[in-house]
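Notebook entry, structure prediction.
Reason for the run: the old model in the group folder had no record of what sequence produced it. Starting over properly, with the input documented here first.
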Amino acid sequence: MNNPTAHAKLGTASRTQCLWLQFKAKVLLVFGLQAQAQAVFEEILSSHPHNVLALNSLGFNELNNRRLVQALGYFERALALTPTNTNAHFNVGFVSEELGRSQEAELAFRKAIELDEKMDRAWYGLGLVLVRQRRFDESLVAFKRNTELQSMSPYAWYQMARVHMELHQPEKTLEIMRHLKGFEPKVAAQLERETGLRLDKLA
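New structure, fully documented this time:
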């Protein structure tokens, strides 16, 4: 005979154990004990396959070890459980882009942006995917939005400069290089080396 009270107690004990294991894993991570922490997350997942924290942690561990297909599997499972989570879409997009799966990455980044239009890293990721697809004009739109959200970050500025060179617009590249020189002179100098353009040619 089923005993609702016994089932409730069992469920409570299971949740309590899961919370304890999560706490234990976090403490291990704080002390830099990555391997031990991942073992705990695997233990959590064996009894709680829908635990998003464990899925994400194991996904990032696989990503750090460049096991991209395995990382994507964990992140996709986490996304299925949290379909309105912008970070979940971004994680899937990031790994998909790393795997060269441009269409999947584009869809994931666009969904993240749909959920949070101000997610600057999703705009940057989208820009990279569009460059891979040689959709340069569209990539400029994505990188420009990233720079509006993160004006002092050099990464999208750098990518925009490269795209303008692909579009045979060296004058626009020079303008970006001058802008970068004001707060990231090393990146501006790198662009000079890569493009052969000289900032002193810009009046």
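Summary: The CA atoms of residues 93 and 105 lie 4 Å apart.
The old model has been moved to the deprecated folder.
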